[in-house]
Amino acid sequence: MSVRCQVTGKKPGYGNQVSHSHHRTRRRWLPNVQRKRYWLPSEGRWIRLRVSTKGMKTIEKLGIEAVVAAMRARGERV
């Protein structure tokens, strides 16, 4: 499974690791993605999301119902 946030869509960033001698090698920066359960009161069930810490703050601010509605509007399966 890819390292991608289901709420914000964050994915790995790519670039160069530059050493002290200026030797460059490719590397990637992974988002801080956690697996978390949320209770959906309207449906009376738990859902499990792969969400970044920024996505968790978004859920706290807007509420899980609004975030799930936006995800479904984008066509994602929840």
UniProtKB/TrEMBL annotation:
<feature type="region of interest" description="Disordered">
    <location>
        <begin position="1"/>
        <end position="26"/>
    </location>
</feature>
<dbReference type="InterPro" id="IPR037147">
    <property type="entry name" value="Ribosomal_bL28_sf"/>
</dbReference>
<keyword id="KW-0687">Ribonucleoprotein</keyword>
<dbReference type="InterPro" id="IPR026569">
    <property type="entry name" value="Ribosomal_bL28"/>
</dbReference>
<dbReference type="Pfam" id="PF00830">
    <property type="entry name" value="Ribosomal_L28"/>
</dbReference>
<dbReference type="GO" id="GO:1990904">
    <property type="term" value="C:ribonucleoprotein complex"/>
</dbReference>
<dbReference type="GO" id="GO:0006412">
    <property type="term" value="P:translation"/>
</dbReference>
<comment type="similarity">
    <text>Belongs to the bacterial ribosomal protein bL28 family.</text>
</comment>
<dbReference type="GO" id="GO:0005840">
    <property type="term" value="C:ribosome"/>
</dbReference>
<dbReference type="InterPro" id="IPR001383">
    <property type="entry name" value="Ribosomal_bL28_bact-type"/>
</dbReference>
<dbReference type="GO" id="GO:0003735">
    <property type="term" value="F:structural constituent of ribosome"/>
</dbReference>
<dbReference type="InterPro" id="IPR034704">
    <property type="entry name" value="Ribosomal_bL28/bL31-like_sf"/>
</dbReference>
<keyword id="KW-0689">Ribosomal protein</keyword>
<protein>
    <recommendedName>
        <fullName>Large ribosomal subunit protein bL28</fullName>
    </recommendedName>
</protein>
